[in-house]
TrEMBL record:
Keywords: Iron, Metal-binding. Belongs to the HypD family. PANTHER family: HYDROGENASE MATURATION FACTOR HYPD, HYDROGENASE PROTEIN ASSEMBLY PROTEIN HYPD. InterPro entries: Hyd_form_HypD (IPR002780), HypD_1 (IPR042243), HypD_2_sf (IPR042244). Pfam families: HypD. This is Hydrogenase maturation factor. One of its GO terms (biological process) is protein maturation. GO terms for molecular function: 4 iron, 4 sulfur cluster binding; carbon monoxide binding; iron ion binding. The keyword Iron applies.
Length: 377
């Protein structure tokens, strides 16, 4: 298949749905006793709702939405730290647009900008680098945020800054990794997961083998998937086939994009610039060992935490989540967004209480966008 429309072919989707239904019956999946499949990535959550797959699929299949939205898992304290830096008169703080409306404990970046902080939206860390070249008298900080998908581009910007000897560019590094939170979820005795839809974009960078432990140590199938409706349906079918055959393996449905061993150039840039933090705090999941990256000492001059004595290099503030916010439970698959008491009441896209309502990959945003006020009722 060459065109996106072919991956949205209704006849193909119907055929896959029929095969899924047949297998679901065969393994005894029912509405009361469903097979729980976690789609790790928020992009998949949005595709599932955009194409109505949750309604079309056999009632014995339940999608559990995972923690794969990097903006959503950021604790409020990290947003506060961004604002603390942005409020310094010498700083130009740069960020992807996705993070602008995420609430901190008092303000979002958008509100801080309205209050006078010099916060600018960029499309790439290279835009931030260009700002640093053009403003030698200012300190340009880039909000490095995201899973392995965006980690390499931040690394390349740091390498470029080092080559040019730029001294007024730094990165507030909040890059995180996918396998560690999945391990944390699997170690949680209350999680009832039967299989996983693996992230497509992250796997383009890291390949499929970092997930081997999920099949080998926990006996759960994982299928790396694309983002079109037939990609997702085929991936569910592949997970169910493994369950029906009593096996667990890591399989690659998205082979047209995801190389088995990942992207060598990206992996080399990651290895050169970052090292693992001993642990990193996730919203809703707490501290997870080795789940975050920090900038290696060789590139310390580009580490905003070191430069401004903030975050893990400073005195970290204890910041509670907003009262009544169920973001943690939603992000770990324990609660559906519509079950959050704030959904559509204290929390809407216009007045968000949690990041999941404003991020383009947030589960609450997906429910709102494709179910909206109806779901709130
Ligand atoms: S509705 Fe708002 S408060 Fe509730 S889980 Fe979603 S983002 Fe968090």
């Amino acid at each position: 298949m060459k065109f996106a429309s072919e991956f949205r072919d209704p006849a193909l989707a119907k055929g896959l749905l029929a095969e899924i239904a047949k297998l679901a019956e065969q393994i005894g999946a029912t509405r009361e006793k469903p097979v729980h499949i976690m789609e790790i990535c928020g992009g998949h959550t949005h595709s599932i709702f955009r194409y109505g797959l949750d309604k079309l699929i056999h009632e014995g299949i339940e999608f559990i939405h995972g923690p794969g939205c990097p903006v959503c898992v950021l604790p409020r304290a990290r947003v506060d730290e961004c604002i603390e830096m942005a409020e310094r008169p010498e700083v130009i703080f740069t960020t992807f647009g996705d993070a602008m409306r995420v609430p901190g404990s008092k303000l979002s970046l958008l509100q801080a900008k309205a209050a006078g902080a010099d916060i600018r939206m960029v499309y790439s860390p290279l835009d931030a680098l260009e700002l640093a070249r053009r403003n030698p008298g200012r300190e340009v900080v880039f909000f490095g945020l995201g899973f392995e998908t965006t980690t390499p581009s931040t690394a390349l910007a740091i390498q470029q800054a080092a080559r040019e000897g730029l001294t007024n560019f730094s990165v507030f590094c909040n890059h995180i990794t996918v396998p560690e939170p999945i391990k944390a979820l699997l170690d949680d005795p209350y999680m009832m997961l039967d299989g996983f839809i693996g992230p497509g974009h992250v796997s383009m960078v890291i390949g499929i083998h970092p997930y081997d432990f999920i099949a080998q140590d926990y006996g759960k199938p994982l299928v790396v998937a694309g983002f079109e409706p037939t990609d997702l349906l085929q991936s569910v079918l592949m997970v169910l086939r493994q369950i029906a055959e009593g096996r667990a393996a890591v399989e690659n449905q998205y082979a047209r994009v995801v190389p088995e061993h990942g992207n060598k150039v990206s992996l080399a840039a990651i290895a050169d610039v970052y090292e693992r933090r001993p642990s990193f705090e996730w919203r809703g999941l707490g501290e997870i060992d080795a789940s975050g990256l920090r900038i290696r000492p060789a590139y310390r001059a580009y580490d905003a935490e070191e430069k401004f004595g903030i975050g893990y290099a400073g005195k970290r503030a204890e910041v509670e989540e907003a009262e009544g916010c169920a973001c943690g439970a939603v992000m770990t698959g324990r609660m559906k967004p519509v079950a959050c008491p704030q959904f559509g009441k204290g929390c809407t896209p216009e007045m968000p209480l949690g990041a999941l309502m404003v991020s383009s990959e947030g589960a609450c945003a997906a429910y709102w966008q494709y179910g909206g006020a109806r779901a709130a009722e």
